[in-house]
């Protein structure tokens, strides 16, 4: 590939989704190069091409006609002062959309980087991240910022937003293997986030207790991850899923994949991201063939899967 493409990473939340919206910690790891984008100047207006999704259109200028991704593209053009430029923008997604894998943030990051390269804007990662966060607000309402941060920096991180924000890279020497099971049911993150918000308003003490429990298992999870204590990490993931279940953000398909993963030897399995639909992750035991076995179990039930390795080698940026 001679062509200059720019990338945004996808992400998997290992532990801490939903609680992270309320200032607790979360651990997330990248899905490398989930989205690639390329911009070429010229033509008339903005020609948007997403071959995998069958999109080949001129970008709508009027807001009410726009899909979420078009709205966020419009914000990017406006913020970067590129509204009058004509170009051909091609986007190549390597992760399915709306599956809780951070695809929307990765589209924003890849596009911003492609525009930066084409128009020589000199944006640093911090600026890319900020702008992608603006886009995430359009897609989600009240995002924690974990998706755009992972998408920009592409490293396993301990993350916290709010008054005392934290972004700490977690160094993982020994590779850890995950299988992602993709339900195929669109996850409406904004919907599950707002259901949790309402439930918390109705039962503040119960929900604060759940968030605190999630927070402490995230902190334990960092030690387990760094120390390669996979059985402990798996147990923490299982408990975390139980708490997510208590918040009622799971679904039939997610539960099925989690049971299959555990039956096929996963050390732990839980939903990842917003839930409602979307994806699960399963932690594989270190023996050879374990990931393939879990993967084929999930696939036999009719779901898509991908394998993701955490740590062990430097991540491609
Ligand atoms: O569904 P995703 O991949 O956008 O993940 C959402 C994670 C939440 O914690 C539920 C929301 C957030 O903004 O952090």
Protein described:
The protein is of the alpha+beta class and 317 residues long. It folds into two domains: 6-168, Ribosomal Protein S5, domain 2; 172-310, 2-Layer Sandwich (Alpha-Beta Plaits), CATH 3.30.70.890. It has nine helices and eleven strands. It has helices spanning 68-79, 103-119, 125-140, 146-153, 189-202, 204-226, 230-246, 252-263, 290-300, and strands spanning 6-15, 26-41, 46-50, 55-58, 87-93, 157-160, 166-169, 176-182, 268-272, 279-283, 304-310. The strands form two sheets. Strands 1, 2, 3, 4, 5, 6 and 7 form a seven-stranded mixed sheet that branches. A four-stranded antiparallel sheet has the order 9-10-8-11. Strand 6 (157-160) and strand 7 form a beta hairpin. The chain is globular and about 55 Å long. The model has no long low-confidence stretch (mean pLDDT 92). Bound molecules: (3R)-3-hydroxy-3-methyl-5-(phosphonooxy)pentanoic acid. Residues 13, 17-18, 20-21, 100, 102, 140, 143-144, 146-147, 187, 189, 193, 273-274, 278 line the site of (3R)-3-hydroxy-3-methyl-5-(phosphonooxy)pentanoic acid.
Number of helices: 9
Number of domains in the coordinates? Answer: 2
Structural class: alpha+beta
Number of strands: 11
Cα shape: globular
Strand content: 15-25%
Assign the CATH architecture of the largest domain: 2-Layer Sandwich
Which fold name corresponds to the CATH topology of the largest domain?
Answer: Ribosomal Protein S5, domain 2
User: What Rg, in angstroms, do the CA atoms define?
Assistant: 19 Å
- Intertermini distance: 17 Å
Order of helices and strands: EEEEHEHHHEEEHHHHEEHE
**Which class of the largest domain in CATH terms?**
Alpha Beta
- The chain-level mean pLDDT equals 92
Biggest sheet details:
7 strands, mixed
* Stretches with pLDDT under 50, minimum 5 residues: none
Q: What proportion of the residues is helical, as a percent range?
A: 40-55%
Tell me which ligands are bound.
Answer: (3R)-3-hydroxy-3-methyl-5-(phosphonooxy)pentanoic acid
